[in-house]
Queue: 3 jobs
Job 1
Amino acid sequence: MSDLVQISFEGEPISARAGESVAAALTAHGIRGLRTTRSDADRGLFCGMGVCQDCLVEIDGAPNRRACMTSVAPAMTIRRQHHGHNGTGAVDPLPPAAIDDLPVLRPELLVIGAGPGGLSAAIAARKAGVEVLVVDERRLPGGQYFKPVAVQGDDVMPPDAQHREGLALVRQAIDAGVVIRSGVTVWGAFKAAAPAAASDGALEFVASAEKAGTMRIVPGAAIIATGAFERAWPVPGWQLPGVMTTGAAQTLWLTARRLPGRRVLIAGNGPLNLQLAAELSGGGAEVVAVIEAAPRPTHDLAAVAAMASASPALVAQGLRYHWQRLRRGVPMLYDHVVHGIAQTADGLRVTLQAASGDGAPRVLETDVLCLGHGFDPSNELLRALGCRHDHDPVQNRLVPRRDADGRTSVAGVYALGDCTGLGGARVAMADGVLAGFAAAADLGHAIGPALARERQAAAAAGNRHRRFQQALWQVYGAPPLNIAEVSDDTMICRCEEVCFGAARAALADGHIQAGSVKRATRIGMGPCQGRYCRPLLEALITDRCGTMPDEFSGFAPRPPVKPVLIRDLAGR
Ligand SMILES: Cc1cc2nc3c(=O)[nH]c(=O)nc-3n(C[C@H](O)[C@H](O)[C@H](O)COP(=O)(O)OP(=O)(O)OC[C@H]3O[C@@H](n4cnc5c(N)ncnc54)[C@H](O)[C@@H]3O)c2cc1C
Ligand code: FES
């Protein structure tokens, strides 16, 4: 049996697995509504990665704790968080600190993000002799691709090959002498035009950790590897408890071996949905169906062949997922998307429609709906530092300007992995090696012949995996969200509960910039800080006014780029 800890939710005792998140424990007990909004609507686990803030609960009297990012602890008392209620217990106060009293860390190289990309960069730089500090807000290193299993016991499915590869990468980093600090959220990034004193760096970051409080980090150079979060698919009902991202469901399974529900419907675009179907059906869930927005892969056999030539192993893995799905009788419906979601007495009723919009809708019943429509980059720190970006009109996202080794337009700042555009874990790892060596060389460390060969091999691997990704997304090519057809009663801003109708009315009133719509409607003012609504609002503005987004449109990146406890700011 796994180690159990006793916690309570709304006064009812619950057994949780030691090491799992509060969200995993509550989900395992069928608890979906975690907080209520201003309009008294229920919200629950949505992103599962600390971004949406829909899982905020009160823990031991303290409000605003993200259930997805907080581990269970013995005797923890958890309550649903009601809008406007600020907790019942005394919060452990930290002594107020003036900015000059904050502890200052001065690593030679700071890496933000302990995913495959950040860890690979840290290892490369360390091999060249750099003193490296890696920080990550998650409880354990590994990022999204290498999320480790956080629970143990003979009733828990053991780590799989992906887990083991991640553990080996973390071990390699630690053995190389990289310092990894988990549970540290970087929420401020600043660039001095001219440092006031020689001991001041040109770059400065501010971060907070649960017990250590707030700290300043003044590195010689910084590698930003902050990954991505899942893109919104706005349809009526996408804010209901039980609707979550594919990544959230996968995190429950990969880290805590918990299923998001008994019946699970998975919909969206891309191979991650298929992987989740294989994982959850293998774990005992009834996967109702996988709904894929792209047409059947046979529509582009040339792209399938290009994928196979770039990475036969990844194609074989994809075929294995398909085989597992077929063997377990999970149907797959191509060329369809979710069109609406309604709550029923015992779950969700999901309406599907052909991606073209033609034909009669279909309806499926499920407990949980997982939506996975690709990713948007977590580029707030890069933007806050003033790194130049270009808009990619095909993917509708910003891409930082970088040279082949990951150097951004700001001296001493390097970027790689999913925060620069979605290339997947293999591209992130290859680019990590290049950026790690580039940072080392720029910091004055020699890159000897052995490391130069390693660099060359990483460049070749990166190019190969980029070719794979290009062919993959050709195979998975799907029509983009037709923003003009999203109904007025669909929520655009989940946090502030503002619908598309209000956004369109503001545009019609002459508010044609995101900031102006924000002030008129409150879109983007909530705790997710515009991560989900901003791209939708920009698409609406493009649709109405024809103006394409650029690096200065949207909402300005301001500290704190991630929500931070007021007690961590109080002394400032
Ligand atoms: C939710 C999700 C699930 C995914 N699942 C799969 C999968 O099953 N299979 C697959 O092939 N690909 C998957 N992907 C894609 C794949 O994980 C990525 O391509 C790969 O992990 C990218 O590596 P990375 O190092 O760039 O970023 P990530 O692995 O995303 O790592 C970024 C890290 O940065 C940290 N971070 C971000 N902001 C801050 C901050 N301000 N302060 C401190 N730390 C910060 C995050 O906590 C995270 O650990 C998933 C992506 C996401 C977002
Ligand atoms: S589900 Fe926890 S922050 Fe999104």
Job 2
Amino acid sequence: MENSRTHIAPPGSGTAWARAFSILYDPFLWAAELAGLRLHRKQLLTQARGRTVEIGAGTGLNLPHYPGDVTELILAEPDPAMRSRLQKSLSRNGQRARLADAPAEALPFPDGSVDTVVSTFVLCTVDAPDAALREIARVMRPGGQLLIIEHVRSDSPALVRWQDRLARPWRRFACGCRCNRATAELISACGFELEHACEASWRAMPPIVRPLIIGRAQKTAPSDAETEPQSAGQAQPASARSQLSGG
Ligand SMILES: C[S@@+](CC[C@H](N)C(=O)[O-])C[C@H]1O[C@@H](n2cnc3c(N)ncnc32)[C@H](O)[C@@H]1O
């Protein structure tokens, strides 16, 4: 059934800072894109296929990397300032894609209708990542895939202390982003198995957001996605991270 919940606006959406952030976003990431992120995006997105939904598509930095195997591309972006930049990127690239004003927690697609969901640096920002992951599981076809690049809570106790200390100011600066969120654990707790995943470093970015996971996740079993997961919160169970290999 298509989700008919009311629209959930991202935190800070519509403010002057959110507008400024959307303008500063590409220049802020410029060095990091050149230092390796662009290559990570390209390598990840070679796996995209079929009907593809990108959540929190931002300014459209993934757009140049979608392969021909993608038969339909839908870019879901709930923030109006980001969406307007996304529209400009699309026009500039002459690319065919549909824009949707939708948060990851309430995707306007029927159950089991999407082959690939893409999330790059979005699960750190959504207010309810467990709800977003359940929604991704709902729209995904059997055999569908979730492709992710996310920065995560560090394994290093020293860095984690800084991630926790700076979480609040970073969140204000980066429009809702939680630098200390244990996203790999959340993905597993919400009924996905992270496979072909690797850890990497987000070079040329502040250390608190450098630890990355990059990979592909599939639903472990349809019933898992329908049950209420335990909230992984900021906890640090070993299960999901131990599946990752160095990269
Ligand atoms: C750090 S940016 C990432 C942009 C892009 N995905 C990238 O790889 O550069 C986070 C994006 O998530 C969007 N966002 C915030 N809350 C969201 C939500 N609840 N659902 C989907 N996207 C959300 C923001 O508007 C923003 O575009």
Job 3
Amino acid sequence: MSTPLSSAETIDFGPLRIRYDERVLRPRPWTTEQSLWAADLVATAPEGRILELCAGAGQIGLLTVSVAPRPLLCVDADRVACDYARRNADEAGLGPLVEVRQGRLEEALDDDERFAVVIADPPWVPRDEIGRFPEDPVTAIDGGPDGLDLARACLRVAARHLLPGGSVILQVGTRPQVDRLTAEPWPGLRLAEVRELDGGVLVRLDRTA
Ligand SMILES: C[S@@+](CC[C@H](N)C(=O)[O-])C[C@H]1O[C@@H](n2cnc3c(N)ncnc32)[C@H](O)[C@@H]1O
């Protein structure tokens, strides 16, 4: 059964009009940078679908495929977020390109599914700091003790499900988080670029052969 979404608010996300409400994270305008970086990568990526992990209302992946059309699979554990992602895809005219799958990212994919580009926007706030964001749903921001529990899970999924030559663009909160994460071994992935932005940090890792 889908969730009633009648009280949705809207926000412009690039050229897209995105619906959401207080049960999901409010779309953050700076994250259009993640969409557009992913769209740039699509031009040289291998053939294949795009995967968006922790999609929320879906706007980051939707903007990517509105610029660089490819089939998109959006994954989120939250049912309300998934309902918004479906509705936002339909209202943007992108419904035929988009599948939304509700489930924990650690379990949502079949073993043989492969993707050209992975967009990942996990909760990244360290648990003892989530009180700084009382308006945000806890499940959308709580990244565990160092804020990186879900980021690590996203990279494990990317390492397993990216096609050779594909890339993951992961969002975290701070440069020290990037340094901590990329100091850990990620077999099959190679650090390519870090972009520090007002609001968060994006890191690109490429799949090695
Ligand atoms: C930081 S929010 C990002 C949402 C959206 N990308 C945005 O920018 O508004 C993180 C999202 O991860 C989802 N999430 C948390 N844990 C998850 C898990 N284990 N598997 C899949 N999704 C999860 C939450 O429901 C939430 O929608």
